[in-house]
Design brief:
mainly beta
Length: 116
């Protein structure tokens, strides 16, 4: 069974920085793709960033150049480094993993609020 535990959300000022972390626990599985989505109030969940096992990354246009995603394969952890956040980045952030065996699993979500 795969469990994802997120941490690092909270209140951040515009132009500041915040780091989100997500760790996968359990046994009997191998993680392929890891990434993040977010959902703002009244909006659909949207893609933020993803990273493959080989380290290939992809970003949503509005966060490219401000956010960075990286991972530690040994620890099965994915990090979202949020630099220069803006009020429009306010949302609940969800990490996800796609397994080599198939299947997608989601974290419980962590609130990020960007406000002065």
């Amino acid at each position: 069974q795969v469990q994802l535990v997120e941490s690092g959300g909270g209140l951040v000022q515009p132009g500041g920085s915040l780091r989100l972390s997500c760790a996968a626990s359990g046994s009997g599985f191998a993680v392929n793709v890891m990434g993040w989505y977010r959902q703002a109030p009244g909006k659909q969940r949207e893609f933020v960033a993803t990273i493959t096992t080989a380290g290939r990354t992809n970003y949503e246009d509005s966060v490219r150049g401000r956010f960075m995603i990286f991972r530690d394969n040994a620890k099965r952890t994915v990090i979202l480094q949020m630099n220069d956040p803006k009020p429009d980045d306010t949302a609940v952030y969800y990490c996800y993993v796609v397994l080599f065996q198939g299947g997608t699993y989601w974290g419980q979500g962590t609130q990020v609020t960007v406000s002065s």
